[in-house]
């Protein structure tokens, strides 16, 4: 290649660079204009805004200055749309899917209704989607699985129905899945065993049913598992008891049965803090190992079929809530109540009376269930009385019926 050839190729490189600059800047303008149009389309679907939150969304301000918006510094693209707790009433526009640089969408605590548009699946950079406490209805859009960077997905407290989309299982970065308090039905799909980053699975107060899938035992990062107030049946799979990171577990009010595993709170769930197994058909003894669960603060197993002697709770210095009522605990022997003296925050319960020793209101009070007859419980009553007085707590007496 001669001198001429070099000049020509340099010239052609310069021309190409120039063209690239022209097209990329017009693309940028296009992208920005699309962001603005998408936000206006979003606003157009808001029927009522009593706090005038969206009055700043006007022509005299750049959209990056509009309330609830944050943009990327360099290219001025919308990365955050956060209008939580703004009393907004309306629908979520499908144009939301055009805000392709969005990383956080937070609309929790408003009154959005109608469905969540499938277009949400176009937000492939989205990391946080928070739509809790609205009135969204319809199904969870399965396209959400295309938001492959999603870490937090919360849609608690809406009117969502239908099944849990199988596709959610492909969200390998998902850490938090919160769908509490909807009307979701069907089973937990086996694909959820692929949610390898999941730390929080929070799906209580739905109409979910079937067995708890074995594959949830693959979720090694899981610290919080809440499946309460559904229709789960069968037993807790042994793989679940293998999850050593669990700190809080609730299967409250389901149709589960079987005994609790030996080692609970010690070798099984060694980091246990809160345990809610009430309102099922669990049976057998409370494992002695619970005495070793040094971080246990809540142990709630009311309304089951537990039997036998209650282990010592003396070492559980963090325990503040204990619910044993409506079981068959105790062997009708002298030592049955030994554990009571080991408790710091003591409450007693007899067949006809529930004695509540409370720091604040009765609602917050701790209850201890016991099948002993009223007469047989008088010594307990005294223990409780004296401990209550010692701590200057309120002492309340309810009859069983009244409490129920
Ligand atoms: C636009 O919003 C700003 C900030 O809320 C406000 O000061 C201004 O008066 C608004 N302009 C118009 C034309 O509404
Ligand atoms: C934005 O999204 C809507 C609905 O998904 C679509 O109809 C429209 O063409 C998009 N706008 C632009 C400018 O691409
Ligand atoms: C959503 O709320 C608006 C205003 O309250 C109401 O007019 C509309 O019918 C609701 N739509 C749905 C699908 O519930
Ligand atoms: C939903 O995802 C499918 C592919 O999984 C795609 O074909 C479809 O266009 C998406 N729908 C919307 C509204 O983005
Ligand atoms: C939803 O509302 C309840 C009750 O007001 C509140 O405790 C909860 O924190 C709210 N959830 C979200 C996600 O804001
Ligand atoms: C889990 O992921 C693996 C690998 O991507 C895939 O082969 C498998 O089908 C998935 N399992 C389920 C139940 O979706
Ligand atoms: C659990 O419930 C389903 C129906 O939801 C039923 O088909 C299944 O047999 C039940 N399993 C057990 C172990 O009771
Ligand atoms: C529990 O974990 C151990 C070690 O990771 C493994 O060998 C065993 O198969 C697991 N048990 C169940 C029931 O998943
Ligand atoms: C108990 O909790 C403390 C403080 O959160 C923590 O440092 C400790 O490792 C926990 N111990 C167990 C056995 O979980
Ligand atoms: C409680 O912990 C101690 C010390 O690790 C251990 O020797 C004992 O066997 C444990 N008791 C139960 C019932 O797990």
UniProtKB/TrEMBL annotation:
Subcellular location: Membrane
Main subcellular location of this protein, as a coarse class: membrane
The keyword Nuclease is assigned to this record: no
GO CC annotation: membrane
Entries under Pfam families matching the protein: LRR_1, LRR_14, LRRNT_2
GO molecular function: ATP binding
Membrane topology qualifier: Single-pass type I membrane protein
Domain Disease resistance R13L4/SHOC-2-like LRR as annotated: residue spans: 145-339
Domain Leucine-rich repeat-containing N-terminal plant-type: start-end pairs: 36-72
Residue intervals passing through the bilayer: 6-27
Keywords carried by this UniProt record: ATP-binding, Glycoprotein, Leucine-rich repeat, Membrane, Nucleotide-binding, Receptor, Repeat, Signal, Transmembrane, Transmembrane helix
InterPro entries referenced in this protein's UniProt entry, alphabetically: At_inactive_RLKs (IPR050994), Leu-rich_rpt (IPR001611), LRR_dom_sf (IPR032675), LRR_N_plant-typ (IPR013210), LRR_R13L4/SHOC2-like (IPR055414)
Protein name stated in the entry: Uncharacterized protein
Species this chain originates from: Malus baccata
